[in-house]
Amino acid sequence: xxxxxxxxxxxxxxxxxxxxxxxxxxxxxxxxxxxxxxxxxxxxxxxxxxxxxxxxxxxxxxxxxxxxxxxxxxxxxx
Length: 78
Ligand SMILES: [Zn+2]
Description:
Layout: E1 10-21, E2 24-36, E3 42-43, H1 46-57
Antiparallel strand pairs: 1-2, 2-3
Bound molecules: zinc ion (ZN).
The site of zinc ion (ZN) has 8 residues, from loops.
């Protein structure tokens, strides 16, 4: 497909996605996405996102647990 941001071409790739569901953050590996070869923008099919919601809602295998830092970016100091 064509990228909506830069009109570059996208390629189907398996990527790692940060996915929020019911206030919880998940890192989901091996998710199919169209990735722009120019700007890197990623496009996920609505069906894929629904399938991830569904997977996370039922019993699923957890590969790894991560500690995640939440940081506030200070624009002024940058
Ligand atoms: Zn693009």
